[in-house]
Write a structure and sequence with these properties.
single chain; mainly alpha; Growth Hormone, Chain: A; 16 helices
Length: 411
């Protein structure tokens, strides 16, 4: 067997599982719709209010439930069947996308309506995210978790590559509302995939029986496990300040480079998505999540984001967005897999909910804060602040990891 075939088989190992293949296809379609809606929603908010701060508020509301109640979502996932939760969340998200499309079509789309729908979608994601993360092991088993998580990152960013390009064309040719309708329809693909899965081939994680103090127990477990504690802390800083692309990139396109068309923004996001696909495939091939690699790739992400912030032209920014996208997804996929591989099954939902709080739940703080920085200065500063904090935090993680490793060797 050739080295190429061996490498390819290793890179796509999780896709040998039929249930995961179904899930992968359904999610690729759905994520394309999600990114299409993300581009359209950002453009809609700027059309209504012409304010990057309002855009930050919309993004923040979408993740506020995760910040306030994320641990409850994780505990609910630990207590209940994951596939049943996903049925409910996919249907709910599809209905919310349909509602937003109808509001735009009937000329009733106000900023207040967008606020409400963003908040409701955040409630859906509160339950969807930890259930989806924990469901990965049920489809592929523990050994293939790193590979499956990385391939999940590829499909999410394959959607980022496809969705913005489609959104740009639809917004220009048909109108913003069509993006929301297409996204609503895309959730059907996930529902069909869930329905076609063979229950006999799933590896169910034992659910946790209801008892008092389970939230506190999950928090104590995460804090008392150094790898989990440190990774979540770093992800929280990076998620708060560096991952607010839906706030910074539209304004970078519109304000800094004076491009008023959705196509220019779509290409920038798609370039980042292309890099993310490449980065995700590399991590899937590597399949060895370590804290050291997480610190190194996080620092690289900060450097790449700095290059985007300093780009003299839009074309340079679009090219620089490719390595930024690659490093960003390698960082988050490695963090995800590291946490899953180092957490007990009974704690998986709660640990992954803390990860979701750190990565997504911090958005209600970070999005308005970064939006305010952009409004007070310019988009370059907003991106640069996040990149510098990312490099500083990942440097701290590297030093902490090396010190702890030295203590173990000395002992």
């Amino acid at each position: 067997m050739s080295a190429t075939r061996v490498a390819t088989g290793r890179m796509f190992a999780a896709l040998h599982e039929r249930n995961f293949r179904l899930y992968f296809i359904g999610q690729l379609i759905s994520q394309s719709g999600t990114w299409m809606q993300s581009v359209a929603q950002g453009w809609l908010v700027l059309q209504i209010t012409n304010s990057s701060f309002d855009l930050g508020i919309v993004v923040a509301l979408q993740f506020l439930p995760m910040l306030l109640l994320g641990s409850f979502g994780g505990l609910y996932a630990d207590r209940n069947e994951k596939r049943r939760i996903l049925y409910a969340t996919q249907i709910s998200a599809g209905l919310l996308a349909l509602a937003l499309g109808l509001l735009v079509s009937t000329h009733h789309a106000t900023i207040e309506a967008v606020y409400v729908l963003a908040l409701l979608l955040g409630v859906v994601n509160l339950f969807d995210n930890p259930a989806r993360q924990a469901f990965v092991q049920e489809m592929v088993g523990r050994e293939l978790i790193p590979n499956a998580v990385s391939l999940n990152s590829v499909l999410m960013n394959g959607g980022r590559l496809i969705g913005p390009a489609l959104a740009a064309g639809l917004i220009t040719g048909v109108g913003i509302a069509t993006c929301f309708y297409v996204n609503a329809g895309s959730y059907v693909a996930v529902l069909v995939a869930l329905f076609l899965m063979r229950a006999s081939e799933l590896r169910p994680i034992n659910t946790v029986h209801r008892a008092k103090g389970q939230l506190r127990l999950g928090l104590r477990y995460a804090y008392g496990t150094p790898v989990i504690r440190d990774v979540i802390a770093v992800v929280a800083v990076v998620g708060t300040f560096a991952y607010n692309f839906t706030v910074t990139l539209p304004e970078l396109t519109r304000t800094t480079f004076h491009q008023s068309s959705a196509a220019a923004y779509g290409i920038l996001v798609a370039a980042m998505g292309l890099g993310a696909v490449v980065g995700g495939l590399y991590v899937a091939w590597r399949s060895r999540p370590t804290v050291h690699f997480l610190a190194v790739i996080g620092t690289s992400f900060g450097v790449a984001a700095t290059v985007v912030a300093l780009s003299p032209t839009l074309i340079v920014a679009q090219v620089a967005a490719i390595p930024m996208g690659a490093c960003s997804i390698m960082f988050i996929a490695t963090a995800n897999a590291t946490l899953q591989m180092n957490s007990a099954e009974a704690m998986r939902g709660r640990v992954m909910s803390l990860y979701a709080i750190a990565f997504l739940g911090t958005t209600p703080i970070g999005a308005p804060l970064v939006g305010a920085i952009v409004s007070a200065t310019n988009p370059r500063v907003g991106i640069a602040v996040g990149s510098l904090l990312t490099m500083a935090t990942c440097g701290w993680l590297w030093v902490t990891f090396r010190r702890r490793l030295g203590d173990v060797v000395a002992a």
